[in-house]
Amino acid sequence: MYTLNEFESRDVLDEKLAHHIADVLTQAVNQKGKASMAVSGGSTPKGLFEKLSNMPLPWSNITVTLADERWVDFESKDSNTRLVHENLLKDNAKAATFFHIKQGEKLTSDVLATLNEQALAQVLPFDVLILGMGEDGHTASLFPCSAEIKQGFAPDAQPLLAVQPATAPHQRISFSFAHLAQSKSTILHICGDSKKNVLEHALVSDDHFEMPIRAFLHGDAADTSIFWAQ
Ligand SMILES: O=C1O[C@H](COP(=O)(O)O)[C@@H](O)[C@H](O)[C@H]1O
């Protein structure tokens, strides 16, 4: 299921989305004393992160993590962790806890097992999930071109899996669909005409192995609010 919210500019979208996220996180902290949020990387969320970082939220009770990460060092320009630290975890949001899904040098099965245990104890299920979408319809690092795509959609999947995309750089780590779909509030944040075209293509069929984002748009597994601006 989905609802589509369109905005006249990226700045207006970022402002509205930041307030929407703030409301959900505040409500979660009021109800259970803590909240968790998984954000996406890439180029789209920078402006949103800037707005969120200035909001007066109970950040010390909020844990932030990533829906997916490229297995690169923090110093790399492709590190989603670095993007989040430089653009979100500053000002008021500096008080938040960050759960690192990229830990250590190699993504071994032992590292994955430890991360899965920690994710279950510290962040899952997410109160807020902010997804992005690639031109190929990938979301998080559930890539249609990867050998691991079936594993990413297995109903009994572990929280995290290693992914090697055939058409994008870097080994990845990604939350699986089974765990992403349990998020209380799911947002798809996309901008520009080309992403709108990809979205329209995603809406015409429910084959999520061809376009993984479809799993968040069709059927009852997720209820996704799409935020789009030119
Ligand atoms: O590789 C990734 O790409 C997607 C989309 O990124 P964008 O630059 O087109 O906004 C992103 O959602 C994902 O987190 C990232 O690892």
TrEMBL record:
It comes from the Bacteria. Coiled coil: none annotated. Residues 9-219 form the Glucosamine/galactosamine-6-phosphate isomerase domain. Transmembrane segments: none annotated. The keyword Ribosomal protein does not apply. Its EC number is 3.1.1.31. It catalyses: 6-phospho-D-glucono-1,5-lactone + H2O = 6-phospho-D-gluconate + H(+). The keyword Hydrolase applies. Pfam families: Glucosamine_iso (PF01182). Pathway: Carbohydrate degradation; pentose phosphate pathway; D-ribulose 5-phosphate from D-glucose 6-phosphate (oxidative stage): step 2/3. Keywords: Hydrolase. Gene3D superfamilies: 3.40.50.1360. NCBIfam families: pgl. PANTHER family: 6-PHOSPHOGLUCONOLACTONASE. Hydrolysis of 6-phosphogluconolactone to 6-phosphogluconate. Belongs to the glucosamine/galactosamine-6-phosphate isomerase family. 6-phosphogluconolactonase subfamily. This is 6-phosphogluconolactonase. It comes from Thalassotalea eurytherma. The gene is pgl.
